[in-house]
Each structure stands twice: as C-alpha cells, then as structure tokens.
C-alpha cells in the first residue's frame, strides 16, 4: 500500500481556521468522514484518545497525527493532510504549536506500515515540510508527495 | 538470543509503528540483534522486554514500568533524536555480548 493510494485529493484541506486542537482534529477527521473512509463516530473517538492519553499524537514539531482504533469505525485505511491558518497548541511542550494535522485511519495494525514509512521519509525532509506549509492547492500537495517519496 | 524492544503508543498503530521502523534500521546500523514489537498502552504493561520506547505523555499513562529500561522520544519523524538516545543502549548491549 502506497501513500499516494491512501491520500485522496478530497482528504486534503489547506489553510483551515481552527481555534484550538479539538477543532483542528475535528476538521481533519471530518475530511475522512465525508468520503466514507471512516464512520462519523471515528471523530469523537480520535478526540477521546487525546483527552484520555494526552497529546502524544503530536509526533514531531508542528505535526500531529490523530487517530483512533480500527474498530472505531474505519471503513478503509486512509490518511489526510490539513494545514492550519494559525498554529494551535496541543499541550505537547516539545512539539507545540501544531499547524500540520494528519488524520490517520488504519483498517488493522500493519497494512499501513509502508504508508507510514513514506510519510516519515517525506516529513523527515524539512524542505518538504516548508513547502507543505506554503501549499495553496491539493494538487500542489499531491505533487510534492509524489516527488518527495520517490 | 536477541534483545526485545517494545515501542508503545496509545493505539499501537501510529507513532509506535514509526518508531519500530526507525529502531529496526538503527539496530541494523549498530549491528545489534533486536526484535522490535509494537504495543498499545494497555497491552504494554504486562509484556517482558529489554527496552521500552515511548513518548513523555504516554509514560505518565503507563505508570512505572518495573524492571524495564525506558527511553522517551518526542520526535518520531527525524531519526536523530532516536539515534542519540538509543546509541548508548545499543553500545552497551554490544559490549555485554562481546565480554
């Protein structure tokens, strides 16, 4: 499974306004709901994970990858990308503030491993992250990713 | 016998999987024989391992993990932090092996 297969164009939203982390996660999760990749109950499940376990979903400076369990209503393994107009704090001292939110839905525990590998290699390059922050269209993002994960 | 490393995140399928990939690559680089498994906070508690890798946030949820060496990671994307923190452990394991 490749990153470009699970990152659909309609799972990308750029320069989204959000007042706080919960709004940012909700916006990100709703992208997956709208395409039917997850059930609507997946969104409160994502919020619940962060409330229960803390802001550990902020996996690197500025980047959060909220997700819940496969059994919380995942129909297909999928991933989105949301950039925020203004960064929000998740309460993660090492990595706040966050302006890139990557909603993840996994159908099981390992089929998305190659997707995460590509994502990590893409985000591991600071040039890519800078370009992603500045991207204005979903096509630009898809283009960046296809170039950045060769 | 190989060393067992447990990477722990909330669901066992996000950051723990990213950490597993990075650690496997680092173990190879250092020539350490290590098996890396992922777990969620709930199932991690009862598991035996030589090293547990997680985030500062989840360390609180995990509570004290008795008898386990724990490494806390904040950045799961860049390998530098992980390498810096795993290096001393891997070097110690290697020297124990050769003695």
Structural summary, described in words:
The complex is a heterodimer of chains A (150) and B (99). Chain A is built from 6 helices and 6 strands. Chain A is of the alpha/beta class and 150 residues long. Chain A has one domain (3-148): Mannitol-specific EII, Chain A (3-Layer(aba) Sandwich). In chain A, strands 1, 2, 3, 4, 5 and 6 form a 6-stranded mixed sheet that branches. In chain A, strand 2 (58-60) and strand 3 (63-64) form a beta hairpin. In chain A, helix 2 (21-34) packs antiparallel against helix 3 (42-53). The longest helix of chain A is centred in the first third of the chain and has 14 residues, at 21-34. Chain A is globular, with a radius of gyration of 14 Å. The relative contact order of chain A is 0.22. The model of chain A has no long low-confidence stretch (mean pLDDT 94). Chain B has 99 residues and is of the alpha/beta class. Chain B has one domain (3-94): Response regulator (Rossmann fold), CATH 3.40.50. Chain B has helices at residues 15-30, 41-44, 56-62, 79-98, and strands at residues 3-9, 34-40, 51-54, 69-72. In chain B, strand 1 (3-9), helix 1 and strand 2 (34-40) form a beta-alpha-beta unit. The radius of gyration of chain B is 13 Å and the shape is globular. Chain B starts with a strand and ends with a helix. Chain A binds chain B through residues 49, 52-57, 59-61, 63, 65, 67-70, 92, 94-95, 104, 106, 109-110, 112-113, 116-117, 120, 123-124, and chain B through 9-15, 17-18, 21-22, 38, 41, 55-58, 60-61, 74-79.
